[in-house]
Amino acid sequence: MDSVTSWDYIKDNYEADDRLAVVIKQSSRQVIQRISTAERIASPDFQRWLRFENLKGGNIYLSANALCGQATARTRNQIATVRHVFLDIDVNGEKVLATVLLDSHIPQPNYVLNTSPQKFQTVWKVEGFTIQQAEALQRSMAITFGADRAVVDVARVLRLPGFYNRKGDPPHRVTAERLSDDIFQPSNFQLPTPELDQPLMRHMRVVHQPGAISQSERDWAETLQRLSRGESPSAVKAWLQGTRQDKSQPAYYAEITVHKACAELDRRRGVQQGLEL
Q1: Which residue of 5, 47, 50, 95 sits 20 to 30 Å from the alpha carbon of 202, by its own alpha carbon?
Q2: pLDDT, tens only, 129-186
């Protein structure tokens, strides 16, 4: 990872007068929040204070998006401008990250942050997004790639590079790699239609209506069964692609469904191992 400093990261990702929330979470569960401009947060005095709090054990976070001028809290209805969309990758980190970086339906992220061993955050600089568009895209990407589906709200805070993640022992220095200087529009993200996403969301939330099982949900169930029986992912992809030629993108549909099913089975095995321990 490149040595991207916290102040360079702020200057590159925000306008000088953007109002942002800095959140410091202490191990004692104490939370400190300060709202100030990007220019002020990137200043030497403010950065010294953040380093001091980090050395004391605080975890340092910064709001992903700009707040209203009179904002006194970090809430969804206080978001003035959507500056970023993002993913929080906390399971199968390197595998999920590789899938994100190689997918042709979305642009390369501007930044990849290594937030702890095998965990990453990907950040895209954007413009022209409404709050609803940003959250819908983040939810779709999280489901498609296997990222954290709980980290999709525009008022979320993300870690800052250059500071230590102090949740583990030893602490892990958060680093960042810059991959792009572009600013992206909604049209740059070409994910499959909600026809795939919605059944998967219903399955994972276990919110089924009686008698309303779709073909995509049947595909999901059989994909899990075939993989559980020991069929190779490539064989399952070939089967699914062949049976769902009614899809506009059968190969992509099969790729994403099998990838997601593999991640789900890995998660279940991890839970089972934990129970056995």
Answers
A1: 95
A2: 999 999 999 998 998 898 988 889 999 999 999 999 998 889 999 999 999 999 999 9
Question: How many domains does the chain fold into?
Answer: 2
> What CATH number is given to the structural domain containing 181?
3.30.70.1790
- Segment 63-99, tens digit of pLDDT: 999 999 888 888 888 999 999 999 999 888 899 999 9
b/e for 90-115, b at 16 or more Cβ within 10 A? bebbebbbebbeebeebbebbbbbbb
CB 196 within 8 A of CB 256: yes
Q: Which domain holds residue 213?
A: 194-276
Token code pair at residue 153:
């709200």
Q: Within this chain, do residues 57 and 183 fall inside the same structural domain, yes or no?
A: yes
- Residues 59, 119, single domain; the answer is yes
For residue 3, the cross-strand partners are 176
